[in-house]
Amino acid sequence: MTNDAGTSSAAILDVEQLVVTYGTRTAVDGVTFQVKRGEIFGLLGPNGAGKTSTLSAIEGLLKPHAGTVRVDDIDIQHDPIEAKTHLGVQLQASSFQSELTIEEIARLYAGLYGLRITKNGIADRIRDVGLGDELGKRYKSLSGGQQQRLSLLIAVIHQPALLLLDEPTSGLDPQSRRQLWTRIENLRTGGGSILLTTHSMEEAQAVCDRVAIIDHGKLITVDTPAGLIATHRDDPRVVNVARGEVTLEDVFIGLTGSEIRG
Ligand SMILES: Nc1ncnc2c1ncn2[C@@H]1O[C@H](COP(=O)(O)OP(=O)(O)OP(=O)(O)O)[C@@H](O)[C@H]1O
């Protein structure tokens, strides 16, 4: 997508002064950040920090109280249909018809996006996510990990410029988690950009190019994991919680506090 000057902006996602409210509760309180093209960007925060609310506003699922969201230079509020064709979102298990087979579901969503993919093409994509032996299996008889792989396949079937993933590795075993990160990195290698939330600081430190830490609806800091560690390693709050070499988790707990959130 090009802007008025005929050039692509460096940001695939531009979130400006985003405010999300539920009644009198402010869940996201003036959050601003950009995701660059070709970047894996992690949104980190304790329970209730406002991560899912931020993603929901980016997806156009809820109307922000204030602020703007531009996906690939398209304002999600002004042109939601066009903006959404540039977005890939992992659907919840309840979104899929349980009686349909993997192949039927993939064909259904390819059709919904108006894609012309042959039967063999669909089978190839299913094989790519390691479900080649399950083509004819009904959704309801898939394991949690298999369901998760199918939902990732559907999220990227239209080759979106930006993939949004809300806690993609939660509930997965170590093998499935490792495979998922490899897939996410392959998507980035193929030119995609990824915005994800995770509670695994170890994974964020290993995989994300940059991370933002949010708490109580406000963005505290954005940088590369190494940059955050370098900036905050001598902060007494971080030194206090570190048990050895300072990690991203130490920085996260140092900046957001040790108390458990509701
Ligand atoms: N539908 C809703 N109605 C009212 N309050 C909500 C609603 N959804 C979220 N909230 C509140 O908004 C705040 C932010 O919630 P959100 O789900 O965005 O946080 P989160 O960072 O994704 O948390 P978690 O890590 O626990 O998933 C919380 O205080 C939550 O209770």
From TrEMBL:
Family affiliation: Belongs to the ABC transporter superfamily.
Recorded coiled-coil stretches: none
PANTHER family: ABC TRANSPORTER ATP-BINDING PROTEIN, ABC TRANSPORTER ATP-BINDING PROTEIN NATA
Annotated compartments: Cell membrane
Membrane topology: Peripheral membrane protein
Record keywords, A-Z: Antibiotic resistance, ATP-binding, Nucleotide-binding, Transport
Top-level lineage group: Bacteria
Chief location category: membrane
Name of the protein: ABC transporter domain-containing protein
Pfam families given in the database record: ABC_tran
Start and end residues of each ABC transporter domain: 13-241
UniProt xrefs under InterPro entries: AAA+_ATPase, ABC_transporter-like_ATP-bd, ABC_transporter-like_CS, ABC_transporter_ATP-binding, P-loop_NTPase
